[in-house]
Amino acid sequence: MYASGQALGIDLERLDRLACALELVHAYSLVHDDLPCMDDDDIRRGRPSCHAAYGEATALLAGNALLLCAIIEVAGDEKSSEAQRSAGVERLCEAAGSFGMVGGQQMDMELENMTECQIDLLNEVYRLKTGCLFHVAVMLPTELVQVRQEQRNALDAYGRKIGLAFQIRDDLEDMEQDALLPGNGTRPTYPVLLGVEESRKRLSDLGAGALEVLDVFGDQADLLRSLGQWLTAGSGNGSGARDTNSELRAT
Fold it and tell me: Could you point out which of 97, 200, 207, 208 has its C-alpha 20 to 30 Å from the C-alpha of 165?
């Protein structure tokens, strides 16, 4: 979100509440995703997940509260006009709800019981489950300033491409780290459906496409370019991703 705002010439402090709102949505999704009725994970970032530490009921309520806090952050942004706040709430709720992340999560659970899955269906699951949050992060700043249509189109394409790229890279890293344990190997992923080499090619193509659309911004989109390179480089050996990550921290 900050990288998108930088490309549009926005004072980055103006994005603070929007960025907090997006992270609140992200945190809520992780709390609920860890629940026994979902992925049933007892560890999150090396520590007990919310339900493991405080119980399922508290985790459910905590996730609900985080989501509502996110809406409050956008709706209460005193630096934005009423129209901007309304548009921001609508964008965030659409990305997080049944036409976005929640809908994608439901489809993802249904994949577990499918005997066959086509790549187009997997793309749609990834677009909704994960891609929508990447996309809304890139697009929310466009509600705050006058944006040329070519700039809006470029950010729209960039957000969609890196959202899918993130999931393909995640699939590849799971495969490379032997994360597809017995019992999980039949779950549809890019390497399972297309093979490792074709998955890497599609990841590379998405990365190149994401960088190409940013030409309209010139040097102002350099941070977006770095993020795109970080997401799509280094799969298979890891070194490229680490090097770019160091550059991002320096930036």
Answer: 97
Range of the domain at 211: 147-251
- Do residues 188 and 143 lie in contact, with contact meaning Cβ atoms separated by under 8 Å? no
Specify if 136 maps to a domain: no
| Report field, pTM of the whole predicted structure over 0.85 | yes
pLDDT in tens, 46-68: 999 999 999 999 999 999 999 99
Summarize pLDDT for 134-176 with one digit per residue, the tens.
999 999 999 999 999 999 999 999 999 999 999 999 999 888 7
On whether both 97 and 154 belong to a single domain, the answer is: no
Say how far apart CA 105 and CA 89 lie, in whole Å: 21
Q: For residues 190 and 173, is the Cβ–Cβ distance under 8 A?
A: no
Question: How many angstroms separate the CA atoms of 74 and 53, rounded?
Answer: 30
Q: Give the number of other Cβ atoms within 10 Å of residue 49's Cβ.
A: 20
- Determine phi and psi for 43, rounding to 5 degrees: -125, 135
My answer on whether 163 and 68 are in the same domain is no
User: Does residue 113 lie in a domain region?
Assistant: yes
Is the pLDDT assigned to residue 236 strictly greater than 60? no
Supply the DSSP string of 41-91, one letter for each residue: -SEETTEE-HHHHH-HHHHHHHHHHHHHHHHHHHHT-TTS-HHHHHHHHHH
Which residues, at least 6 apart from 76, have a Cβ–Cβ distance to it below 8 Å?
A: 17, 85
Query: Is 3 part of a structural domain of the chain?
Result: no
Domains held by the chain: number: 2
Amino acid symbol at 135: H
